[in-house]
Each structure stands twice: as structure tokens, then as C-alpha cells.
From TrEMBL:
The active site is at residue 147. It comes from the Bacteria. This is Peptide deformylase. The gene is def1. GO terms for biological process: translation. It is an enzyme of class 3 (hydrolase). The keyword Hydrolase applies. Removes the formyl group from the N-terminal Met of newly synthesized proteins. Requires at least a dipeptide for an efficient rate of reaction. N-terminal L-methionine is a prerequisite for activity but the enzyme has broad specificity at other positions.
Length: 190
């Protein structure tokens, strides 16, 4: 089932997610619905707050990027990179900061360069509640960092300079009022 994606301004996007356990009601169905919702919007990541739940879960599927010539060198790594992250904790971020032009399904039509460190160590449970501690870098780390922010109540626009924030403010207000054209299902706060 495709769920409506919560737009900028929805208070759920500002909540810090709570841990869940393996008995969380309807967990598998929720995961399936999140993937279906993400694909319907051509996203490569989606976090639970974006569908209205303040829990520590997000999904990523960067396999479409394996076809992209920008990622030729890591196509092999990207082509199976589809994962569920539950109760995630980033343990360490290291390496050079690099800029990437980020966007967000909750903030349509806004794209801005964001600087983040290149490598992360993250502890999480997968969809079968098996615990992992793994290191990721490149675009994989980037997508995880963006989604991880969501379960901490942070949005990519929070990372912009104060000047850039001023420049996008009008657009953000419009999004929160539903004044934006989109081709996927969204729910607006007002
Ligand atoms: Zn996002």
C-alpha cells in the first residue's frame, strides 16, 4: 500500500524516533509499504517519520544508481544495496567532508549541496532483527546519513548556511501549505 509522504512542516518530521522491538505490530507489512511508497516517488531512501511514525526505522535502495555513469566505479557495490535499518545508531563519522546535492521526498523541488563526512560506522538491526555493525562510505554513507537525520528529527535544510536557509525559506513555507506540484502521494500539515 502506498502511504502519503509527510511534507515539510509536519511536526512528526521533528520528532526523535523511538526504538522498536521485533514484536512491533505489522512490522513486515510496514516495511513492504515503505518500499512501495518510496518506489512510487522514485526515492532511494525513506524514513518512518516521513510516513507519520516517530520510530527509528528507515529503508534505502540505491540500486537505480548502479546504472548511473557517475557511479561507474562502485556499480557492483550499489547494485544490491537495498537495506532496512532499525534502531540505528551512528557510532562514528570520519573522513573528509564532501558536498553532495541532496533532495528529500518531504521537501519536493528543493535541492541543495550539503557537506557531510565520507565514512560512517553504524550499528543497526535488519528486518529479521539481526544486529549488524558496518562501515559505509561514498553515496551509500550519504543516503544513510540523510535518512538517519530523519530519525533524529533533522532535515537536510537544517545543514544549510544561514544565507541559503533564507533563500529557501519561501519555498519551504509554500511546501508546508501544499503549494507545490508533485507526482506522488503527499500529506500536508495545513
Ligand atoms: Zn529526506
Amino acid at each position: 500500500m502506498i502511504l502519503p509522504i509527510r511534507a515539510f512542516g509536519d511536526p512528526v518530521l521533528r520528532k526523535v524516533g523511538k526504538d522498536i522491538d521485533k514484536d512491533y505490530p505489522g512490522l513486515q507489512e510496514l516495511i513492504d509499504n515503505m518500499f512501495e511508497t518510496m518506489y512510487s516517488a522514485n526515492g532511494i531512501g525513506l524514513a518512518a517519520p516521513q510516513i507519520g511514525l516517530d520510530i527509528r526505522m528507515f529503508i534505502v535502495d540505491v540500486t537505480p544508481l548502479a546504472e548511473d555513469e557517475d557511479y561507474e566505479d562502485i556499480a557492483e557495490e550499489l547494485k544490491d544495496f537495498k537495506k532496512v535499518f532499525i534502531n540505528a545508531q551512528i557510532l562514528e563519522e570520519s573522513g573528509e567532508e564532501w558536498k553532495f546535492n541532496e533532495g528529500c521526498l518531504s521537501i519536493p523541488d528543493v535541492r541543495e549541496d550539503v557537506k557531510r563526512k565520507s565514512t560512517i560506522v553504524i550499528e543497526y538491526f535488519d528486518e529479521n532483527f539481526v544486529k549488524h555493525t558496518e562501515t559505509f562510505s561514498d553515496i551509500r554513507a550519504r543516503v544513510i546519513q540523510h535518512e538517519y537525520d530523519h530519525i533524529e528529527g533533522t532535515l537536510f535544510t537544517d545543514h544549510l548556511s544561514s544565507l541559503k536557509k533564507k533563500l529557501v525559506k519561501g519555498k519551504l513555507v509554500k511546501i508546508s501549505q501544499g503549494d507545490v506540484s508533485i507526482n506522488y502521494k503527499m500529506r500536508f500539515p495545513k
